[in-house]
Specification:
CATH architecture: Up-down Bundle
Organism: Qipengyuania xiapuensis
Shape: globular
CATH class: Mainly Alpha
Distance between the termini: 42 Å
Number of helices: 8
Protein name: Biliverdin-producing heme oxygenase
Helix content: 55-70%
Strand content: under 5%
Largest sheet: none
Radius of gyration: 16 Å
Length: 178
């Protein structure tokens, strides 16, 4: 089901990459905006997972404590959390967990880009090993799921997560422009 889920969410994934990719992350100012958008969206989705856990696996590890530490170390104030999505089923939550955990794949690249730019510190979120480990376990659950009954609700949950992050990045980029 992983391939089908990726195909069904490709456009949303590209939009989010374009929104987040607008932040070069090679200066602490832009990096703080990135972290604040992440915090805003992740705090919301962590609340949603507390109400509806993903099918076949526990909720992804909380990332907001690491993000809060990084934001504070940059001398910034924590943002307000976005409104929590509602997952109508554990399969929707599974699709959302796939988005949340899959985003960790790019974190090492972002960390390397910051270090290449001579920036260090505020890397508790980007360097966290718990999310890539969770993603490996999650992939086994997704691969074992029956696409005939799981793909539609998992796609809905994934699209809810992509929309949540896209909105958070849009809000924080507008804040930067103001």
């Amino acid at each position: 089901m992983r391939k089908e889920l990726r195909e069904a969410t490709d456009a949303a994934h590209r939009r989010l990459d374009a929104a987040a990719g607008a932040l070069p992350l090679t200066c602490d100012h832009d990096y703080a905006i990135f972290l604040k958008a992440q915090y805003s969206a992740r705090a919301a989705v962590e609340r949603a997972f507390a109400l509806t856990a993903p099918a076949g696996i526990q909720a992804p590890p909380a990332q907001t404590p690491r993000l809060a530490r990084d934001i504070a170390s940059l001398g910034r104030v924590l943002p307000v959390s976005a409104e929590a999505p509602r997952f109508d089923s554990p399969l929707e939550a599974l699709g959302a967990a796939w988005v949340i955990a899959g985003s960790s794949l790019g974190n090492r690249t972002l960390l390397a880009r910051r270090r290449k730019a001579g920036l260090s510190g505020a890397d508790a979120f980007l360097s966290d090993p718990s999310m890539p480990e969770y993603f490996r376990r999650l992939l086994a659950v997704i691969e074992a799921a029956d696409p005939a009954s799981s793909l539609e609700p998992a796609t809905r949950g994934a699209l809810k997560s992509f929309a949540l992050f896209e909105g958070a990045f849009a809000d924080h980029l507008m804040e930067q422009a103001a």
